Amino acid sequence: MPNRTLLIAGNWKMNNDVAEAAKLADELAQALPEVPAGVEVLVCPPTIDITTVHDRIQAAPIALGAQNVYWEAKGAFTGESSCDMLKSAGCTYCIIGHSERRAMGETDADVNAKVLAALEAGLVPIMCCGETLEQREAGITDEWIAMQIKLGLNGVSEEKIRRVIIAYEPIWAIGTGRTATPDQAQEVCENIRAVVRKLYSSKNARAISILYGGSMNDKNAFELLAQPDIDGGLIGGASLVPEKFVEIINAANQPTA
Ligand code: 13P
């Protein structure tokens, strides 16, 4: 795949207090004085750790993202953070619509409002989608994912679609150690690209980045990242272990042919 930039993103989820986050960020900054050409590295710590991690990785080629965002700019929204607040703390990306948040009640309409707000503010949204095991076994994976994407991207303009990253995270593969096979992941990511092609254009479909997430680790990353429609990984557990995360970054850098 010539000229493909792969994004290797760590979603730390609700792990690491401030001291632990500082330690992990220091270890990553030390392990990654530079990243291979064609690879971008991102970490998404808990909100409470963002400022600390920002300070620690400032000199390293590691981008910073949030795990969630709110669509309003300011006001009486207890517990939420706006796009501009996250940007002021150093974030350039934000994960939106992770299945763990959807399980807490986040709807497709919420995801859509967040995607639009992030784009408006200049944050890169990483919009997550994924099916349950029941949906996969019922043979409705493609329809389900297409629906999540259409609803999540509602109102996203032709000009802005290229700044959206889509992460395919089958729910049955998250934190279970049960990874989608490279073929399974490729098949859905290819379908996601086809949905974007239909909604926008072939050019935009080719330009957009699609990540795979779900038990990606240092052992299986190479094969997953070698798939033509997989443009990177969204990594949970393995992103908390510097050696494993660095191995995944190295796997992204290997020639696939
Ligand atoms: P795991 O890598 O721990 O399965 O988590 C994946 C994920 O949900 C990343 O957002």
Structure write-up:
With 257 residues, the chain is α/β, with parallel strands linked by helices. Helix content is 40%, strand content 16%. The chain has 11 helices and 8 strands. The protein has an 8-stranded parallel barrel with strand order 1-2-3-4-5-6-7-8, surrounded by 5 helices. β3 (62-66), α3 (83-88) and β4 form a beta-alpha-beta unit. α1 runs parallel beside α2 (50-57) and α7 packs across α8 (182-199). The radius of gyration is 17 Å and the shape is globular. The N and C termini lie close together (9 Å). The mean pLDDT is 96. Bound molecules: 1,3-dihydroxyacetonephosphate.
Largest sheet composition? 8 strands, parallel, barrel
Question: What is the C-alpha radius of gyration, as a whole number of Å?
Answer: 17 Å
The succession of helices and strands, N to C, reads: EHEHEHEHHEHHEHHEHEH
Distance between the termini: 9 Å
Per DSSP, what share of the residues sits in E-state strands of 2 or more residues? Answer: 15-25%
Q: Kindly name the structural category.
A: alpha/beta
Assembly of the depicted chains? single chain
Q: Figure out the total of helices.
A: 11
Task: Give the strand order of the largest sheet, numbering strands 1, 2, ... along the chain.
Answer: 1-2-3-4-5-6-7-8
In helices, the fraction of residues equals 40-55%
The tally of strands reads 8
Mean pLDDT: 96
Low-confidence stretches: none
Hetero compounds: 1,3-dihydroxyacetonephosphate
Give the CA-based shape.
globular
